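explain this.
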Amino acid sequence: MAKYNISEKKEKVAAYRTLVSPKLMDEMQEKILNIIVMQKKYRDKDYSAKKLAEELGTNTRYISAIVNVRFHMNYTSFVNKYRIEEAMTILVDKRYQDLRMEEVSDMVGFSNRQSFYASFYRMIGITPREYRLMHLKQHPDMKVTKKAKPKAKDKAKTKAKTTAKAKTTARTRSKATTKTKTESEA
């Protein structure tokens, strides 16, 4: 007699998926791609499956069914895929090297850095920071040098030089003024 009731898990097929005709799925697939990718709605943090369904004049179940069947993922993974792809481009673009990860995550539509990191790691297998550093190692000419902040020692030297110049200028002016007064008295 078996101690545990173990049975194989049967994969359920969602009934609503079969209710959507292939022709309608093709049309909706194109419309979804147009809205999410071409119009870049994936950048909008508040753009949900519900808003997409309203825009397409359908309900979220149909959107979910089409995304599952045609793209083999759920709606959130579908949207995050395009966000991550754009983030990868931004992370290696020299123009954006000074951006913090929070700024990159915000640009591509994530609501916070944690969800950005989690999605990026799940999809790519490394963190966004590791991705950026790895790319910079492969392409050292892409490194952007940030202006280094002067050290306290350097600040003191600069201040001393400025003070010395100011004193020299003051002495020169004083001599010129004295010379002018002497010439006018004579």
About this structure: Confidence is low (pLDDT under 50) at residues 144-150.
